[in-house]
Protein 1
Amino acid sequence: MTSYKIRYLPTFEKDLEDALDYVALHLQNPTAATNLLKETEETILERLSAPLAFEPYYSKKERKYPYYRIRIKNYVIYYVVIENVMELRRFVHSRRNIGNLI
């Protein structure tokens, strides 16, 4: 059984920070932001045990590594698996046009 590590790209970290700020400050709901962060962390750790066991996200772009998705509330995490690393690349609202972002 392969043991996977997590790598957070700066784009993922910025996306997550922006989403949490939006919920906490713009929507004035810091509790919801805290809950979103907690659920995001828990879901990532759950997926880490078998990140390749899910259907890849197919796009029109040719990619060296296929993207996978994790849905959390109104958001989607996009990640790739490179050897034994689950690389988290984007954290975006589900209504955004992802074709321009990944």
Protein 2
Amino acid sequence: MQLPLVLDVCCGPKGFWFDKNDARALFVDKRKERLEYEARGTFVMDIDPDIIASFDQLPFADNSFALVVFDPPHVQRSAAKGSVTKRYGFLTGEWRQMLRHGFAECFRVLRAEGVLVFKWGESDCPVSEILALTDQKPLFGQVSLRKPATHWVVFMK
């Protein structure tokens, strides 16, 4: 099977994708479910990956993708209670080690000269602590002016 060029390793509801069914991308998440929640009204949202897998144990060969998107959960909780944790998941237990393995897996499946786009919301942990979990050096990034800040960071393998 020919894999698409792009891999989103924790797609969640595919919130920043213009085309949530873009054929150039393969969408992965550790869950598949329909969410209904209240947040200024009733919302229904689908977490509908192409493949169910965890970003820290990807079922792909080395050097498979030209572009990898890594937007892991960034809120520390013991359970998904609010709309953010229900939509995007949450961090618990040895989450720093899980993110360290996630970075390693993203770079493992990324082709030589491939690009990793990493997104991090600084609600509970500064981006500097998260970037310290990989030995790869980022090229550039952008931070939002909203609080908590959202960082977009770009790496090249």
Protein 3
Amino acid sequence: MNTNYIDTGLTNGTTYYYVVSAMRAGCESTNSLEASATPACVPPPAPVASYNSPLYAGMTLYLTASSVPGASYVWTGPNGFISTNQNPVIQQVGEDAAGQYSVVAIINGCVSEPGIIHVVIHPPVRLSFQFAAERFVLDWPFGTLLTASNIAGPWYTVEETLRSYTGTVSAPQQFFRVKLQ
């Protein structure tokens, strides 16, 4: 005779004791056995870590961990960074925030292997300006060039520019800025 018993709601790492005995015709056998079991921890899969790249000093760092159903998360990183958000955000990062970030998924006390990402933070973006013969040239390493006729905006994207823009001095007052995100 083969009998199974499933005990739900157990805690990993805790030892549980059971007494196993047989019954025949309403009488318990005198050959009872004591058994113990300790549920094993089955770690969840490691989350995949990523971030918004390229990233320049002064921008917002968006860390993301892939979803692991039923998990909570713990991130660690440079400068003592710790977060329990699945997708933490660090505003106005400096170059000192560059380095290795890791995230683990935790389910019922079982911890996954870490998902690791190396965050690179480039120096702040510099917009350079050159003036020659009623023309000016703006150059920048990354981002979208925006323009407005008033410093308060509204701001509009300068179409068909990648990293350089040439304009004329005879145009009405115009303001420029580079949008990084």
